[in-house]
Amino acid sequence: MSKIETGSLACLDVAEMQMAGWFKSGGTSIPLPPSSNILEGRVSVQLHGQKQVHFTYTRVDRLRNKLQSYDVQIWLASTPCHFGGERFWFKCECGRRVTKLYDFGNRYQCRHCLNLTYASRNKNIRGKKGRMNQYFDLHERIEALEEKAVRETWAGVPTKKRQQLDRLWSRAFELEAVLG
């Protein structure tokens, strides 16, 4: 039985919440924007005393096809940063400090508790099929780098991006020869 991939579940990300300014003041209450499955909701962040994020929201339960209200409380941990400020983490039920918690029903848990995997871990890297994946990945990298490489040379010397492109092209030709 294969594991569920992290990309297939909705998740809460501490970094996104911090960039959105949710942790700047001591405590905030923010309305959740409506999405495909959340009809209405509110998030309150408390940073004094016990640090926590409290979600109250209503969404359609697709199995029962009726409205379901949820009240989720997630504890936060923080560590000091070297140049001031602090970094926030979610505290999972298992005790781990994590940056992402995944929505599984009405519970938010880390990928370890839910036994999730990353899509990159499921890629085949052995055999002909694996080499084909490598070949296509190389060509994606080459296309992206060719868009960024503005110059061929600088003062008569190939630029670093051009040197990297040459290495990628030579690896692609090697793989093409192996694949036939």
Detailed description of the structure:
- The chain has helices spanning 14-19, 127-148, 160-179, and strands at 11-13, 27-31, 38-46, 52-61, 66-80, 86-91, 97-98, 100-104, 107-109, 153-154, 157-158.
- It is α+β, with helices and mostly antiparallel strands and 180 residues long.
- Helix 2 runs antiparallel to helix 3 (160-179).
- The longest helix has 22 residues, at 127-148.
Brief descriptors of the model:
6-stranded antiparallel sheet; 11 strands; extended; alpha+beta; 34% strand; 3-stranded antiparallel sheet; 3 helices; 180 residues
In short:
This protein has 180 residues and is of the alpha+beta class.
Write out the strand line-up for the largest beta sheet, numbering strands in chain order.
Answer: 2-3-4-5-6-7
Mean pLDDT: 80
What is the CA-based Rg, rounded? 23 Å
SSE-based structural type: alpha+beta
- Poorly predicted ranges: none
SS field, number of helical segments = 3
